[in-house]
Design a protein that fits this description.
Structural class: alpha/beta
Strand order of the largest sheet: 7-5-6-4-1-2-3-8-9
Distance between the termini: 33 Å
CATH topology of the largest domain: Spore Coat Polysaccharide Biosynthesis Protein SpsA, Chain A
Shape: elongated
Largest sheet: 9 strands, mixed
Order of helices and strands: EHEHEHEHEHEHHEHHHEE
Number of helices: 10
CATH architecture of the largest domain: Alpha-Beta Complex
Helix content: 40-55%
CATH class of the largest domain: Alpha Beta
Radius of gyration: 25 Å
Oligomer: single chain
Number of strands: 9
Strand content: 15-25%
Number of domains: 2
Length: 327
């Protein structure tokens, strides 16, 4: 159990969010003030906006709000580094001051009123609190099916991912310090955070309809996230390749034995269609498995370079502009 009310930092990754950002900041600012008034968080709690290389007025909105209200802080990437890196940057920079950090999407489809439940779990002693959707009624049919299939596939492949979890979660300062020790560039936070093993719990929340703008998670980005999650958190696909290879070896041996028996009997075997079909099948499997191995090799190649996961171009942090916090 914790007794001291925490200093809460809310991290929002932003990418081309000019249509909804001002409204979202109004809602979060009001929510923080209510939490402070109810004595649930410290007065110096903050909202951290991370601009992930936006091409619209997103950073202008963040900078203006930060200059007007010290509750709001801002980080601006030098270019687009991706949603997961934006979340990571906000969390890692916030750990220096915050007792706990909550990450939430800029469109606020994730119910901000669930923050009370997150803080309640934190006060009970949890270092990680996962946000889990009550349902997927707001998703289109295609996204709903693919999302459910993704979590089942991840589980099947041995990755410890909580079904229907989102990037709406709370981490304590202790969990954030542990996360800072993970150096990998290929980030999949939904799979990475459960590996830390701290005391955890879940909070269920409703998902609202988006009030403006479009979701920045295109089908291509969702597929890329899924592939990154599978190849970052599990080697089961490589084990599956070995199993398939053994299966084809056994099949080839059976076909060879049957062919020798037919030859010994003097039977004329046509076999043209079968031969071509098997060649195409085996050739396709070779290309598929080589491509999968190539994904793992490519990820290893990126990791050994040790390039920075993000570069902060500008920062507005507790009243200081362009403060050097990249280290």
């Amino acid at each position: 159990m914790r007794e001291k009310k925490p200093k809460l930092y809310i991290v929002i990754p932003c990418y081309n969010e000019e249509e909804i950002l001002e409204q979202s900041l109004d809602i979060l600012g009001e929510k923080l003030r209510r939490l402070a008034k109810e004595d649930k968080v410290a007065e110096d709690s903050r909202v951290v906006c991370v601009d992930d290389g936006s091409k619209d007025r997103t950073w202008d909105i963040i900078a203006k709000r930060s200059s007007e209200d010290k509750t709001f802080l801002g980080l601006k990437f030098s270019r687009n580094y991706g949603h997961q890196n934006a979340i990571l940057a906000g969390m890692l920079e916030s750990r220096k001051a915050a007792d706990c950090v909550v990450t939430i999407d800029a469109d606020l489809q994730q119910d901000v009123e669930a923050l009370d439940d997150f803080l309640g779990k934190y006060m009970e002693g949890c270092d990680v609190v996962y946000g889990i959707r009550n349902d997927r009624d707001t998703d289109k049919a295609g996204k709903k099916v693919t999302a459910e299939g993704f979590y089942k596939l991840m589980k099947l492949l041995g990755a410890d991912v909580i079904p229907n979890s989102a990037d709406y979660r709370l981490l304590s300062s202790k969990a954030l310090e542990a996360l800072a020790d993970y150096p990998e560039s290929n980030l999949f936070l939904r799979g990475l955070i459960p590996t830390m093993g701290f005391k955890s719990d879940v909070v269920y929340f409703d998902v609202k309809d988006r009030t403006g703008g479009k979701s920045k998670y295109t089908i291509g980005k969702m597929v890329a996230l899924a592939l990154n999650g599978i190849t970052s958190m599990s080697t089961r696909p490589l084990e599956l390749i070995v199993f398939i290879g053994l299966l084809f070896c056994v099949l080839a041996l059976v076909i060879f034995v049957l062919s020798m028996i037919d030859w010994a009997r003097g039977m004329v075997v046509q076999g043209w269609t079968t031969t071509v079909a098997l060649l195409c099948l085996i050739g396709g499997m070779n290309l598929l498995t080589n491509g999968l191995v190539g994904l793992y090799v490519g990820k290893a190649y990126i990791e050994v370079k040790h390039r920075p996961r993000y570069i902060i171009d500008q920062a507005i942090w507790d009243g200081s502009v362009n403060e050097d916090i990249n280290g």
